[in-house]
Design goal:
Helix 4 packs parallel to helix 5 and helix 6 packs across helix 10. The longest helix is centred in the N-terminal third of the chain and has 25 residues. This protein has one domain: NAD(P)-binding Rossmann-like Domain (Rossmann fold, 3-Layer(aba) Sandwich). The chain is an alpha/beta fold. The site of nicotinamide-adenine-dinucleotide has 29 residues, from helix 1, helix 4, strand 5 and strand 7.
């Protein structure tokens, strides 16, 4: 299959690109290379005969149309987005234009292209969204695919809007779309500003580890390899027009998660114990949702996907990767200063 992946130089996109190439698919990576897009994430396959790269901003419908005509993909997997909630609170404009206008420009270009293919029934547009669109939960319950969208942050509101656009392009124009709403992902090549890499990198550098509020906010953590497998399974086996939650079922409070990482660092660098002494509580994030939790029984029952990587195992592997790859993250941290 020929896949056009937007945002293929980011954290999840690059893992998806590597996986798709390994499975023998052709991949066209469409990415604007923002601060979060990094060619090093796919350096291992950048010369591969199945891989091509187009530096395009998804807000540029004209360029998207040219790229679609030139490469004629069989499916689109849409990940390009502004993704960091903290940034969305400070600089919401990029989130609105990229996540909403960019998704709109992409949908219009893809619709035109799909119609030029005679409304090919086998064509797919897979939209990668987040559990954050559902808004906060209390201690009890989980979101199903029928839960209403109640986003709290500029990031989650912009992603919720993009979900609605994708759904509308299916209902109104018949575009064969699929949507996934996944929980927090973690693993190799995640940009240092995100929670898990930040804790690892600050712990390694003996720097304070900031935690919002009282650290009791709960998130569900999914290993990148499990997520990539789920996305490929939804692409090939999902029912057109449907959304699929992708969660690990492994919920943990932020403080407990940070303490788990500190314990891994303790085991590796006992002379600096305990790393948890670096934890510092800071003023809570504005609009900080208390808990997210996904009911992922639909993807399990209908597609047969279940997560396979335990959080403790995945965290150990992730810490080991950041330890072995400081040449990847150190320049990113220096540039961010
Ligand atoms: P990321 O920030 O690591 O990567 C985003 C990529 O999109 C980068 O390569 C960036 O250059 C590219 N991009 C940004 N704006 C662009 C534009 N205007 N045109 C073209 N490319 C642009 O993000 P990620 O963590 O890999 O997330 C990928 C997708 O998955 C996003 O849509 C995000 O909302 C969704 N998601 C992520 C998580 C998570 O935990 N990381 C969880 C649920 C959903």
């Amino acid at each position: 299959m020929k896949l056009l992946i937007t945002g293929g130089s980011g954290f999840i996109g690059s893992a998806l690109v590597r996986n798709a190439i390994a499975l023998g698919h052709s991949v066209i990576n469409v990415d604007a290379l923002t601060y979060a897009g990094n060619p090093d994430n796919i350096s291992g396959i950048s010369d591969h005969s199945l891989y091509s790269f187009e530096r395009v901003d998804i807000r540029d419908g004209g360029r998207l149309g040219e790229v679609l005509e030139m490469h004629r993909p069989d499916a689109i997997i849409h990940l390009a987005a502004q993704t960091h909630v903290d940034r969305s609170i400070k600089y919401s404009s990029e989130f609105i234009t990229t996540n909403i206008n960019g998704t709109y420009a992409l949908l219009e270009s893809v619709l035109h292209y799909w119609e030029s293919r005679g409304n090919d029934e086998k064509f797919r547009f897979l939209h990668v969204s987040t559990d954050e669109v559902y808004g906060p939960l209390d201690d009890e319950g989980s979101f199903t695919e029928h839960s209403p969208h109640r986003p709290s942050s500029p990031y989650s509101a912009s992603k919720a809007a993009s979900d609605h656009l994708v759904n509308a392009w299916h209902i109104t124009y018949g575009l064969p779309v699929l949507t996934t709403n996944c929980s927090n992902a973690y693993g190799q090549y995640q940009f240092p500003e995100k929670l898990i890499p930040k804790v690892i990198i600050n712990g390694l550098g003996n720097k304070t580890i900031p935690i919002y509020g009282n650290g009791k906010n709960i998130r569900e953590w999914l290993h990148i390899n499990d997520l990539v497998e789920a996305l490929m399974r939804v692409l090939s086996g999902g029912e057109v027009g449907h959304a699929y939650n992708i969660g690990s079922g492994q919920e943990i409070a932020n403080l407990a998660l940070v303490e788990m990482i500190c314990e891994i660092l303790d085991s590796k660098f006992p002379d600096r114990n305990p790393h948890s002494k670096l934890i510092q509580f800071v003023n809570d994030r504005a609009g900080h949702d208390f808990r997210y939790s996904l009911d992922s029984s639909k993807i399990s029952n209908e597609i047969g996907w279940d997560p396979s990587i335990e959080l403790s195992e995945g965290l150990m592997e992730t810490v080991n990767w950041y330890l072995a790859n400081d040449n990847w993250w150190k320049p990113l941290c220096e540039n961010a200063q």
